[in-house]
């Protein structure tokens, strides 16, 4: 993803979407931050470098598929293969979509990219926060919905490929997977059924504070404030405003309500590392925490509850 620099935070209006508060403790029993952290470690061990076309990328795909064997057996798992033209030529890529049918007519999409940055393939970049922990979070959420089928809207998990630029970030060299998927779903009518597209990106930072992201839909941003209040995590959201070009943009451009849950203030910003640990070899497992992953899991589950009610 690409982002603009942090600017002073303006006063924020809180819209109330939930008549009854939900404690963070109730979500802790649903999806454990410790479990997400353990899944992240396992994912990094299986596929530390996951840039497109690499053996590690294939290992990452196999890791994801192994965790959704029941969904594959029941026809709830789709491999969405495509081959975009990139600065290095035609590159095969794959999105993975896992579907949990609900009882209401509509879909909530939870998404994360799972690969690592191609230009950083020659350094020891493993993307613990940037792609790995969010992939693990979606796997854990899938385990939860496997055992507790959605009672509201259907939940679709999207593990999207090719979020990172192959050469240099631009409108044509980035977001390959979600650009392809948004166009595909626009053509087959799926897009009209999506009530919200919730993106997880860089949400494991030990010092977690999810940005007020200006490309996100205002209603969903306000709902995130309510979700944070309901779960006891108000101190972990909206300290910094940010405008981020990320996997939600292809869906926003087609009129889908979108929310990017992301913390771009990751690590110390210095002259040698102006963006902190982002896209450096310092983005390692020791920079994230089970506690932050717990907060993120709580917020995703509460966002789903609020969207179901709204």
Tell me what the structure shows.
Helix 2 crosses helix 5, helix 2 crosses helix 9 (290-309) and helix 7 (218-231) packs across helix 9 (290-309). The protein has nine helices and twelve strands. By secondary structure, it is α/β, with parallel strands linked by helices. The two termini are 30 Å apart. The model is unreliable at 5-28 (pLDDT under 50). Helix 5 (128-147) links the parallel strand 6 (104-113) and strand 7 (153-160). The strands form four sheets. A six-stranded mixed sheet has the order 2-5-7-6-8-12, with helices on both faces. Strands 1-11 form a two-stranded antiparallel sheet.
Beta-strand residue fraction: 15-25%
Please count the helical segments. 9
- How far is it from the N-terminal to the C-terminal residue, by CA? 30 Å
Structural class: alpha/beta
Count of β-strands: 12
Helix content: 25-40%
Mean pLDDT: 93
**For the report, how would you describe the main beta sheet?**
6 strands, mixed
Using the alpha-carbon principal axes, give the shape. Answer: globular
What is the radius of gyration computed over CA atoms, rounded to a whole number of angstroms?
18 Å
H and E order: EHHHHEEEEEHEHEEHEEHEH
Strand order of the largest sheet: 2-5-7-6-8-12
Contiguous uncertain segments of 5+ residues: 5-28
């Amino acid at each position: 993803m690409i982002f603009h620099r942090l600017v002073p935070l303006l006063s924020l209006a809180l819209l109330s979407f939930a008549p009854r508060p939900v404690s963070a403790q109730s979500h802790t029993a649903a999806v454990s931050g410790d479990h997400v952290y353990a899944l992240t470690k396992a994912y990094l061990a299986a596929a530390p470098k996951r840039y497109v076309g690499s053996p590690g990328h294939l290992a990452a795909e196999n890791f994801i598929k192994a965790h959704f064997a029941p969904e594959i057996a029941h026809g709830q798992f789709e491999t969405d293969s495509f081959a975009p033209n990139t600065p290095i030529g035609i590159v095969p890529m794959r999105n993975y979509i896992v579907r949990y049918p609900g009882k209401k007519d509509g879909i909530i999409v939870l998404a994360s990219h799972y690969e690592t940055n191609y230009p950083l393939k020659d350094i020891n970049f493993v993307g613990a926060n940037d792609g790995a922990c969010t992939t693990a979070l979606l796997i854990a959420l899938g385990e939860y919905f496997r055992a507790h089928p959605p009672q509201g809207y259907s939940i679709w998990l999207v593990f999207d490929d090719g979020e990172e630029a192959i050469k240099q970030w631009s409108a044509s060299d980035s977001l390959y997977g979600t650009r392809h998927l948004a166009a595909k779903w626009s053509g087959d009518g799926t897009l009209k059924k999506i009530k919200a597209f919730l993106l997880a990106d860089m949400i494991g930072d030990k010092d977690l504070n999810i940005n007020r992201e200006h490309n996100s839909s205002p209603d969903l941003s306000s709902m995130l404030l309510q979700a944070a209040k309901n779960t006891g995590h108000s101190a972990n959201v909206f300290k910094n405003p940010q405008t981020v070009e990320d996997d939600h943009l292809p869906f926003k451009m087609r009129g889908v309500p979108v929310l990017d849950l992301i913390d771009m203030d990751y690590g110390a910003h210095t002259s040698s590392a102006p963006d902190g640990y982002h896209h450096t070899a310092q983005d390692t497992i020791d920079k994230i925490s089970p506690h932050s992953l717990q907060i993120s899991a709580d917020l995703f589950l509460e966002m789903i509850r609020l969207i179901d009610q709204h």
